[in-house]
Amino acid sequence: MSTLSVRIDEDLVAAARKAAKAEFRTVQGQVEFWAKVGRAALDNPDLPASFIEAVGPHENF
């Protein structure tokens, strides 16, 4: 998997750092998880975001 540097708001990074620690993820992993959950939510507007988060986003995005 290739990587790319992006600029992210400091507040979002701080929130990701806090969530990552609680979920035993890296900050990068937390941001990727949020992006996948958000994408799954947008792709499935009929499903509640809490359901998508509980089931887990598909890893093949």
Structural write-up:
This protein has 61 residues and is an all-alpha fold. It has one domain. It contains 3 helices and no strands. Helix 1 (10-23) crosses helix 2. The longest helix has 17 residues, at 27-43. The two termini are 12 Å apart. The mean pLDDT is 87.
Structural class: mainly alpha
The fraction of residues in strands falls at under 5%
Sequence stretches where pLDDT stays below 50 over 5 or more residues: none
Average pLDDT works out at: 87
Main sheet characteristics: none
Brief digest:
By secondary structure, the protein is mainly α. The chain has one domain.
Fold blueprint:
Layout lengths: L9 H14 L3 H17 L5 H7 L6
Essential attributes:
single chain; 61 residues; mainly alpha; 3 helices; 0% strand
